[in-house]
Amino acid sequence: MLKSFNLLILDNFYMKQLAIFVISLFFISSLSAQYINEPETLSDDIAIDSLLKLHKSFNQKYKSISGYRIQIFKGSGNSSLENARLLEEEFTEKYSGTPTYLSFQEPYYRIRIGDFRTRLDAINFLTSIKDDYPSAFVIQDNIEFVELPKYQKSLNHEQENSSRY
After folding, report:
1. C-alpha separations of 45 from 27, 35, 39, 48, 49 in Å
2. Closest Cα to residue 99, out of 143, 59, 43, 160?
3. Domain that holds residue 75
4. Is residue 3 part of a domain?
5. How far apart are CA 144 and CA 40, in angstroms?
6. Model-wide pTM > 0.85
7. Does a structural domain hold residue 111?
8. Has residue 117 been placed in a domain?
9. How many structural domains comprise the chain?
10. Domain containing 119 — which CATH number?
11. How do the pLDDT tens digits run along the chain, 165 residues long?
12. Is residue 140 domain-resident?
């Protein structure tokens, strides 16, 4: 009887160890299955893909970013529009590569020039035109997004890859 009792204890001990082994094996296999099913890249996730498409469409629709411009004219009155247009033409003749923006915000007409991404770029250009426009100053404004030539190759590559799918 003592022998059968010892066998029963041993059997019970081995059963517990076997149960622990089976449970741990099941737990490890479920963890590895989770890692196998994870997407390899972020773009495989549907939610992230839709957010990226939304971001791209927003950027195509609203092509302005925070940057700097130089204000060369601000005037109000009866002849201020005419003065602004003459000054804009004069500036365009001297500096044809720099865009000009004529705007009206009651009661002032303003001429702002350039699309500078950094304040330092705007200041550098301001020093070159300061003799012709002594009252000009740098101002923070929403600017048109300028394509950077350094990254143009990578943008073309992205467009080619997106058209394949």
Report:
1. 26, 15, 7, 6, 6
2. 143
3. 67-144
4. no
5. 36
6. no
7. yes
8. yes
9. 1
10. 3.30.70.1070
11. 545 545 455 566 667 777 777 777 666 766 655 555 545 455 567 888 888 888 888 777 777 788 999 999 999 988 999 999 999 999 999 998 899 999 999 899 999 999 998 999 999 999 999 999 999 999 998 888 766 666 555 555 555 555 554
12. yes
